[in-house]
Amino acid sequence: MESDMHASTARVTSMEDAMMGSTFDIFKITSDGPLWVEAVQGLEKAKERMAHLALTSSEEYFIHSQDNGVVAKRTQEYLEEIT
Question: What is the value of pTM for the model shown?
Fold first, then answer.
């Protein structure tokens, strides 16, 4: 049982490490569809950047990962974590 918990923790840690080292694309949702804004290294930095963008605009934004698809959406009112 303890080895199962250790293996689960190792998977979570390696997944978090992979997310930190990955590049995430930030998109703005426009009336014409998604508009690419920029690429950011690491999920936390991407969330911080997306939050800043959402605070300075009334637009909705989302973070996209090549490996995992959309991982978070943000407007001025809320942050929705998809992962």
Answer: 0.67
